[in-house]
Amino acid sequence: MNHLLAKSVMRRLISGGGSIRSASPAPSLTIFRVVTDSATMRRESLVYVRGGGVELMKRMMSSEAVKVTEEKKEVKEEKKKSESNVVASSYWGVARPRITKEDGTEWPWNCFMPWETYQADLSIDLGKHHVPKTFLDKVAYKTVKLLRIPTDVFFQRRYGCRAMMLETVAAVPGMVGGMLLHLRSLRKFQQSGGWIKALLEEAENERMHLMTMVELVKPKWYERFLVLTVQGVFFNAFFVLYMMSPKVAHRVVGYLEEEAIHSYTEYLKDIESGAIENVPAPAIAIDYWRLPKDAKLKDVITVIRADEAHHRDVNHFASDIHFQGKELRDAPAPLGYH
């Protein structure tokens, strides 16, 4: 019965009819929707069949009104999106200009800019080693070797986690040294010879190593706690050491970098043997080191190892300057030496 009634209603709608009365009662509620479109008008007709009668409700809506409503909605969404990208009020006039890559796409990073990126020098000699001769050199060397024992026991061949831990420590000396040289320069009204910037560059470079490793290795809660503990202890210990003897402090860092080269070499061996999957390189690493778009984990570890070799040279060089009885500002700083 409802089926026949629906067909009757459809015919009346097409012919432009008004309301219809049913000859027999309908046991349930049935809803029919009829939609007709034209160039300027949209018509929706809802037909309700209820309790023995048919009520016809016609709702007229202009297509132009629908279009305006949709446009307003789009404008509102775009405005909301643009407002979410605003960091602070434009009243202060502090805003980063639009920066693009070489291919014209927008630069995606706030932590570093295109002019801070570089291609690592892979030709550096990885096998260099400072042979400890003086008593202080031997103390520094033995200290680093002792520090490696608990690291080997805890991480074993989990080189991803080891590298993450290593970088949280490796980024500390440059910051401490740069900070203390900065304060010394202020106290004595002296130039630093560029060494403040050189050491802070080293700290920033090590931090970028960490940001890359975090993309590759997701640290667990106990590893984060370990990082917090080790960083707190190492920062204060290195701060005191640098205050007491900068030449020993730089020598310690030089030997730490030698150990880092060894660790990354072992990391590469596991990648080449298939023990560690050679996954695609993170986007942040591709942009920071100007790597090819199809770069892999092996490429990332290779450039990081080259960076560590440069840091080794810088810190052994700084220690040699102090051992010669001179100050760092007496020798030009190796700025931009990655």
TrEMBL record:
GO MF, one annotated term: superoxide-generating NADPH oxidase activity
Protein residues bound to Fe cation 1: E167, E206, H209, E308
Subcellular location as annotated: Mitochondrion inner membrane
BP GO terms, sorted: alternative respiration
Transmembrane parts of this sequence: 221-242
Protein EC: 1.10.3.11
Reactions catalysed, as given in the entry: 2 a ubiquinol + O2 = 2 a ubiquinone + 2 H2O
InterPro entries: AOX, AOX_sf
Membrane-related topology note: Multi-pass membrane protein
Residues binding Fe cation 2: E206, E257, E308, H311
Domain of life: Eukaryota
Coiled coil: 58-85
Cofactor(s) required for function per UniProt: Fe cation
Cellular component aspect of the GO annotation: mitochondrial inner membrane; respiratory chain complex
Cofactor binding note from Swiss-Prot or TrEMBL: Binds 2 iron ions per subunit.
Keywords: Coiled coil, Electron transport, Iron, Membrane, Metal-binding, Mitochondrion, Mitochondrion inner membrane, Oxidoreductase, Respiratory chain, Transit peptide, Transmembrane, Transmembrane helix, Transport
Main subcellular location of this protein, as a coarse class: mitochondrion
Oligomeric form and interacting partners: Homodimer; disulfide-linked.
Family: Belongs to the alternative oxidase family.
Protein's UniProt name: Ubiquinol oxidase
Organism: Daucus carota subsp. halophilus
